[in-house]
Amino acid sequence: KYHIDHRRRTSKPKLPPGPPRLPIIGNLHLLHRPLHRLLSQFSNKYGPLMFLQLGVHPAIVISSAEMAKKFIKNHDQDCCSRPSVSFLNKLSFGGADIAFAPYGEQWRELRKICSHEIFSLKKVSSFRTLREEEIEHCISSISDLAAENIPVNLTDIIISLGANMVTRIALGRSYHNNGNKMHEILQEMHSISRSFFVADFFPRFGWIDVVSGLDARVEKFIKKLDDIFEEVISEHLDPVRPKSEGAEDILDTMLGLLKDPTNNFTMNNVKGVLMDIFVGGTDTPSLILEWAMAELIRNPQIMKKAQDEVRSVVKSKGKVEETDIQHLHYFKMILKEILRLYPPGPLLIPNEALRGFKVDEYDIQPKTRIIINAWAIGREATYWERPEEFFPERFINNSIDTKGQDFQLIPFGSGRRMCPGMNMGMTLVEIALANLLYAFNWDLIQGMSKEDIDLEEFKGSTLKKMNPLILMASRYTLMQG
Ligand code: HEM
């Protein structure tokens, strides 16, 4: 034992290559948004396993499928924790959630219960009627605009769909009835998470966050979030409240878990998981839908092929139903292609190494932050021919899937921390997109050409289109077809 300790103290770890570092700040000065693009450029120079020093924290960036596989297949257990980040600690009600909690017995138990009770296929299908209602609402708003020949702000419609849906499945009521409170909360959350917290990189200088007012802003935000959660929880606990018709909402399910003495579910878990569902589930489906419609309008022959497929399967039924989706093979390739080019979380949620280990000849030290660039991996020329091109046909006779087994396509991550909401999110995306394609013919606003539909990205941590997508819709009837 003495011998090992001695070696640890004296031998210098071999770090992966990375850009030159400055004293104290390391590489922080090099970073700017969008980070996934910047880190991808760096990794072209320094390789698919790259070292960065972020203030006091060592970090590595993984930018190839092969390297992601080495980590996740061989070392998932060594690096499946999450780093402690001051804002996220508060947002997760002290690590009582799934997404930001450190790895350990508590997290394992919570994830297991939630996978069974909240994210299961049974639960996802229990929300089918809610999805149908929300999509019908969308289709009828678009139909009204189409009838008047008014341009459709698809971005707005898609964002409301995502927000309504998540509020209804989580809380049993719709977004609009909730006075847009949750929308404001999420906007503020995104804005705070773009701030630079000195304490996270230089713990000794944490007082700067106090002086700058950032800490107070966070406290105010957390109080507001907690007040909303307290309000909806007490409404749900009210014995005279009529239960939601049909599917039991997620909050009711979690309050039920609180009563079960065989698990250690706490009220903070209820709030933490609610927060995860709002943060993880509100924007992600909308982002995918928006990019999909943007690419389809830029590629009319692909749009036509997809519409022909949907319409030939659904025929004159009037709307696409969830059971129809399994027959839409080309349509599914389109969605894979969108997830390859536009993973909503281009850098997966960072992990943290629980212990030291070796990959190739490099030492990964305990507490190293592990950043996987899913966006760069989806565009890696080794695996993807003409990677920048939107070409769904690449998935013909190709079994690559997004389920975390094929490391060249990991928009939902992989391994122990992989997204548990994949089915919940993609069921909505599929049924919404299929109905948009079935119900309308889509066109550019008069005077615009398809090149005017830009693919510019908003400089945030999620992959969001910078400019709204505004199109003309005309109602499709079978007579036309
Ligand atoms: C459909 C679009 C979605 C995408 C692309 C997506 C993507 C992701 C990604 C990349 C991660 C990190 C995985 C990793 O660290 O390896 C993640 C984690 C997570 N997602 Fe999703 N997500 C989606 C939808 C949802 C929905 C609808 C929910 C909830 C209803 C959700 C809840 C979560 C949670 C709780 C985690 C944390 C898992 C953990 O740390 O163990 N996601 N998601």
TrEMBL record:
User: Is Protein biosynthesis given among the entry's keywords?
Assistant: no
**Compartments in which it is found:** Membrane
Q: Determine the domain of life of the protein's source.
A: Eukaryota
Under the heading CDD domains, the entry gives: CYP71-like
GO cellular component, alphabetical, reads:
membrane
The principal location of this protein is membrane
> Which molecular function GO terms apply here?
heme binding; iron ion binding; monooxygenase activity; oxidoreductase activity, acting on paired donors, with incorporation or reduction of molecular oxygen
The UniProt annotation places heme binding at 419
| Transcription regulation found in the keyword field | no
Bilayer topology term: Single-pass membrane protein
Keyword field: Heme, Iron, Membrane, Metal-binding, Monooxygenase, Oxidoreductase, Signal, Transmembrane, Transmembrane helix
Provide the cofactor list for this protein. Answer: heme
Report the Pfam families cross-referenced here.
Answer: p450
Membership in a protein family:
Belongs to the cytochrome P450 family.
- Name the UniProt record assigns to this protein: Cytochrome P450
Q: What is the organism of origin for this protein? A: Dendrobium chrysotoxum (Orchid)
